[in-house]
Amino acid sequence: MACFMFLRLLVVVGTIASPITAFFTSSGSPLFRCVLPAKTSPPQPPHAVGPFATVAQPAPTPVSPMPPSSTTSSSSLTNAPSSSGSLQPLGPGHGSGAPIDWWRQWYPMAFLDDLDPARPTQVELLGKLFVIWADHDKTWHAFEDQCPHRLAPLSEGRIDERGNLQCAYHGWSFSGQGGCVNIPQAEPEIKAVAERSGRACAKAVPLLVAQGMVWLWPDNSPDGMEASRSQLPSTVPELHDPAFIRGAWVTRDLMYGYDTLVENVVDPAHVPFAHHGVQAQRSMAMPLNVSLNYVGKEGVFLSLPRLANSTIEFHAPTRLHYLFDFTGFFQRVPLMKWAFRLEKWLRRLPPDTRPRSSLVTYTIPVGPGRSRILALFPRNFFAINKPRWLDHLERNAVLDGDLVFLHGQEREMRRPELKWEENIDRAFYMPTKSDEGVRAFRQWLVRWGAGGPRWADGVDSALPPRSNDRHFLMDRYTQHTTQCSACRGALRNIRVLKGVTAAMSLVCMTAIWTPRPASVLGKILGAGVAMAFGSWQMARLEKRMLFIDYVHAHK
Ligand code: FES
Ligand SMILES: [Fe+2]
């Protein structure tokens, strides 16, 4: 499969990759006119030098002790605690350390490229709604998505003339730190008091921008805010290495939950079947000798030598990271070896650079039975990318391949008699080593993940009803296109082209009824047919941005 994936890379064409976005942070202190209930300035990680500024220093070091870094090879993971022979499901009380606090984590919610600074964006995390917006300085902020006046969602509002967030309902405006800066209905004497009241403030939430992603810390209690200042987001280590490019990047909302998503990504064995004809072939299936190197509070670490000498690292609770080393493959294919040497010379890469690539997914717990994935594909060779929207057509087809059966599997898992939390091997029959990652992740979830995400107060943890509506489950338009700046723009252009070519075809077809020399008529007819064909192709492309049914039986 690795070879297949690599060969796919070779046919990549398109624009030069975006330069690597290093460590950014949100900062600035917009007008703050009322007394806030808690300190709300965004956290300032080490090395932050201002909004949208590239930081030249080395990558910041996480403050909490972590297992081996993602950039290590599989062999270096041997220092991590190893599993003790045959795996025994961990029950409550085994292992060390308290479970993680789901609300005191940094979650990447969106790629910066996909956010429109001209309007606020609503995001959902742990069952709670937040609004992300940018002021006139392009500094990003996050609030709970609720106006303090009468609770209308602030995400329906606008950025006012002074760069504040204005509620759509009665026009109250809020500065980046949540302070109320205008109550249009207030008389001067009321205004002075009301705008300074803590009750007039929007509830700000810690936010930072790192590696081109906007990260939220959902706990905005005073203690939570304090904790956010001492913890850094789980960024991609490779992207601190200038030899790497970000590769492709894509996000999508999924109609299955966080644990189902992690379980799916940590399982490489499903790829030849679930993504046959899109990402791999069924004939590529083989025994996968996945070995577990570590499971603990920090996550799960596995190695998979048969797949491009890869490692799989789950950095709890959001980053799931595959690392592939293509050195052996490059050496076996002389053309590749020389092409990479040439590229190293052209890009002035260090001589000891090995061809490596990664698949990095961030798994976001949106709500019960719903999740969001952010995926990046960093690599240190072939610094050329397809146009992003074209790449997303393929990435979305991959995600479609899992959607329907995972939605169903998740509901089967909830059957009360299964009690998978007590013993995952009672619910699943997993006789091969290819399921090691799944078993280890479920162990982590029970022991260190408190059984699953802790949803916001008042959120029913029951799954939404099972749906057989394939249009709903694989609604590419809502789940991806509307949220992706590249696909939004491409869809707009495709629709214009479809209309223009259809109109030109109609004009040509009308013109052939006017008496003209045969040679001219032939040209008009040819042009009409070409325009009709172009319009039909645009209609097909348009459909691929809205919905394509994925039927495994037809693949
Ligand atoms: S609800 Fe927001 S201003 Fe009234
Ligand atoms: Fe897209």
TrEMBL record:
Keywords: 2Fe-2S, Chloroplast, Iron, Iron-sulfur, Membrane, Metal-binding, Oxidoreductase, Plastid, Signal, Transit peptide, Transmembrane, Transmembrane helix. GO terms for molecular function: 2 iron, 2 sulfur cluster binding; chlorophyllide a oxygenase activity; metal ion binding. Residues 106-216 form the Rieske domain. It holds the Pfam family Rieske. Its main location: membrane. InterPro entries: Cholesterol_7-desaturase, PaO, Rieske_2Fe-2S, Rieske_2Fe-2S_sf. Residues 43-93 are annotated as: Disordered. Residues 59-68 have a biased composition (Pro residues). Residues 69-91 have a biased composition (Low complexity). The keyword Oxidoreductase applies. Residues 1-17 form the signal peptide. It is found in: Membrane; Plastid, Chloroplast. The keyword Iron-sulfur applies. GO terms for cellular component: chloroplast; membrane. Gene3D superfamilies: Naphthalene 1,2-dioxygenase Alpha Subunit, Chain A, domain 1, Rieske [2Fe-2S] iron-sulphur domain. This is Pheophorbide a oxygenase. It comes from Nannochloropsis gaditana.
